[in-house]
Amino acid sequence: MTGKKKIAGLLLAAICLGGFCADRTMAYMSDKEQVKNHLDFVGKDGLNAILTEPDWREENGLKVIPNTVIPKNPQVTNTSEIDLDELVALKCEFVYTAECPDRSRTGRVLSSQDMASVVEVFQIDYNSDDPKKGDWVRFEGQNETDAVQCFYYRKTLNRNYPGTGETTVPLFTELKIPKTVNNRRFSKIQTIGGFDIRISGHVLQQMTGENYFGLNCAEDAYRAGLFEL
């Protein structure tokens, strides 16, 4: 009987905590002004791309309770005005929100300690970490516990002008809160006012056989340090 009371108390606390955040407009995870409509570009006039998240809904950032899955799928589409194929890289940053008690931190990257608290609550299915996929490659020396992570897309993103340009597979597709997450872990994120995920990117014109400047493929561009993120 005691065990049942403890479980009920934990669930009630989690539900109340979520309601508290909604009333205070303090989301654990949000995306306000984070997804850039147009990526930075380098190259001839007309080189362009858009970054979208078809499955993301802002209200989902408030639905943070154990055993919840939040759809979120950042992806890039080649929208060049002429027939230009592209090499793509994205930067994913976890930053403090406007609800952070220390307002001077708003928009700044989370500290390693606060990022550790985020990782304790959220599991993100990065494409780069799935051995069966690997369309995206995380920059060397970085991992899923870093507040700033950069990735390049292994394949060339073709324009196929005048048809529709190709779209990358999502960088990731969801954020999952395991059912084992407890109130103590939630409270750490509440204390910092939640967090935003800021995603931006860079595209380069791909040139087949061009090895001198590193534009033949995305890996070459990465090795040459061409992705400015």
Question: Overview of this structure, please?
Answer:
The protein has 229 residues and is of the alpha+beta class. The protein contains 4 helices and 11 strands; from the N terminus they run H-E-E-E-E-E-E-H-E-E-E-E-H-E-H. It has helices spanning 2-23, 112-121, 183-191, 218-223; strands spanning 29-30, 40-42, 49-52, 68-71, 75-78, 86-96, 123-124, 136-138, 148-153, 174-177, 195-205. The strands form 3 sheets. Strands 1, 2, 6, 8, 9 and 11 form a 6-stranded mixed beta sheet that branches. A 3-stranded antiparallel beta sheet has the order 4-10-7. The relative contact order is 0.24. The model is unreliable at 1-28 and 32-43 (pLDDT under 50).
